[in-house]
Please model this.
Amino acid sequence: MNPYLALTRPGNVILTAVAVIAGSFIAAGDNIVDFQIEILIASISAMKLAGGGNDLNDYNDRESDKENHPNRPIPAGLVSAEDTLIFSRILLAGGLLVVLFGLANKLPFIIALIGTVALISYENQLKALGLSGNIAVGFMSGAVFLFAGMVVNDPGPTLWMFGLAFLATVSREIIKDIQDLEGDTDRFTLPARIGITNSLIIAGTILIVAWSLSYTAIPQFDGMALNAYVIGISSANVLMLVGFQNARDENYFSGQKRIKQGMGVVMLAFIAAAGL
Model:
């Protein structure tokens, strides 16, 4: 794979576009056909911003990645740190400009701008400060759905997804910090501050809040939509529970992956319910 493409983490970039499309469908339902061009523009913008953010992450983590992720392009010697930073700036600026000039509605641009500021703040400062950095990542994950809702002029239905994505992501980020604890000598992460056991307690508590929130959305649905949502959300919660148990068993990589998969199933549950 081209190292510049690898820097963007194509899988994550594609998932970001899927999240925009999913959020738009959750908000607009059958009316999504009226916003095809707007959703395309928003998806392109989100992909650029996600790719630029991943580039910036690799630039700032270039030293710790020598131990934590030695196969990434910078520690592997496939691309220079300076070129990575330039590429990141081009993608971030491009993502903002696409949504600013491509959409008549400027609310999505405001969310994109806030998300970009949060991203840069996270990478340059908040990442090293533990829980505040995890919260910033959680906000950025949830903001994708608010962004999508604003693209179709109805962010209300996406508030549930914002909350669930925010909480699940914060929990997952804490587990990722535990996974990278040994190599993160330059970061004052939550596990480094309060220890692995206490960090797992906080991650688990946040997941419990997310599970509880997921069931409070049930009154929105009825009939087949209700069945689809309950089955989907219950499956997602089981996946995340398995992930948390993996983390408790010190299999942190599998744990955070299962939580991420659970988040994907949550999104599918909302899509299925919105379509019925």
In short: The first helix runs from residue 3 to 8. The mean pLDDT is 90. DSSP finds twelve helices and no strands in the chain.
